[in-house]
Amino acid sequence: MRRCFQHSRRPPPPGASAGNPHKVYCLLAAASLLLCIRSSPTGIAASAMSSITLPTAWVMPYSSNAFPKITCAQQSSRQGRTAVSRCAESPSSNDRGLVSDLEVGQHVEGPVKKVTPMGVFLDIGIKKKKGLIEVSEWLEEGGFPVDYFDSARKLIGKTISARVLRKKGTNVFLTRKLGELRRPRILRGKNMEEDVQTFATMPPDRWFTGQVISMAPWGIYASIREKPGERVEGLIHRTNFVEGFAESASLGQQVRVRVVSANMSTCSLALSMRTPSLS
Predict the structure, then answer these.
(1) What is the rounded distance in angstroms from the CA atom of residue 258 to the CA atom of residue 210?
(2) Which of 98, 133, 148, 178 is deepest in the core (most CB within 10 A)?
(3) Residue 126 and residue 96 in contact, taking contact as beta carbons nearer than 8 Å
(4) C-alpha span between 59 and 201 (Å, rounded)
């Protein structure tokens, strides 16, 4: 028995320094040691194991930190075949679906990842993409979400459900609204300085018919025009809504507005649905 353990602790063979022992020799020594232990009584084996002390220089070069980590792709390449087992079990972006796999109207669900003025982003299992619920699609019953930030931020990390509203390229737009998925065609554009100037000179009691084109947490945007070619977009702040409008607001809806002010440096208009106060 003693001779067996002495054999396992034999110095490195010629040509292999103590700081860099021969790999094959170490494996053979370890195998010999295990065979001796398995063929020995339990008490003797335990005593022998506790008395064995390998030189530090023999052990350290073979610690887990001594070798570079091999990725699944490298392992597959070296073995010449597809690497499975633990590599396949770890989360991978390859396990996610593609935008092309989704269909309009399909029910999806996922945790809320981020809340922005643009909308709420959901992780719906699509590779490198998040589904976006725009502000106008946030409420199930429709309308303008007056407490959008408060209600949405409470759901961060929680799983909610939605439907695929539309796909645009690699972007996925979702809705929580119930009912019809068809939405009016909305034309967007950039305000021209000369057009904004035209509306800036309008009297405050002049009314226009506008169309709701988008929603933000602070209000809705509507487009108005004086005559062909003079179409501009303006913000109706939520404090300038008429009573009951928030509950029924929707994209494409016709609204009656007037110009409150114009900012020529940003080419923007402030609109209101309220009647001007009498002085």
Answers:
(1) 9
(2) 133
(3) yes
(4) 86
pTM value > 0.85: no
Per-domain residue ranges for the chain?
A: 2-67, 98-175, 193-272
Mean per-residue pLDDT of the chain? 77
Give the H or E element holding residue 270.
strand 268-272
Q: What is the DSSP letter of 213?
A: E
Please compute, for residue 58, the number of CA atoms within 13 A of its CA located in the half-sphere on the CB side.
16
Q: Residue 143 gets which letter from DSSP?
A: S
CB 212 within 8 A of CB 197: no
> Among candidates 230, 235, 239, 199, which has minimal Cα distance to 215?
235
The CATH code for residues 193-272 is: 2.40.50.140
Show the beta-strand stretches assigned E in 95-218: 107-115, 119-122, 131-134, 159-168, 171-175, 207-216
Tokens 């619920």 -> residue: 133
Tens-digit pLDDT string for the chain (279 aa)? 444 444 444 555 555 444 444 454 555 555 565 555 555 554 444 444 444 554 544 444 434 343 343 333 333 334 443 333 333 333 355 568 889 899 999 999 999 999 999 999 999 999 888 999 999 999 999 999 999 999 999 999 999 999 999 999 889 999 999 999 999 988 788 898 988 998 988 898 999 999 999 999 999 999 998 776 678 999 999 999 999 999 999 999 999 999 999 999 999 999 999 998 743
Tokens representing 255?
Answer: 């609204």
Cα–Cα distances (Å) from 79 to 56, 62, 68, 70, 71, in that order, read 32, 21, 17, 12, 12
Beta strands 254-263 and 207-216, pairing class: antiparallel
The tokens describing 148, both together, are 């959008």
Q: Do domains 98-175 and 193-272 have the same CATH topology?
A: yes
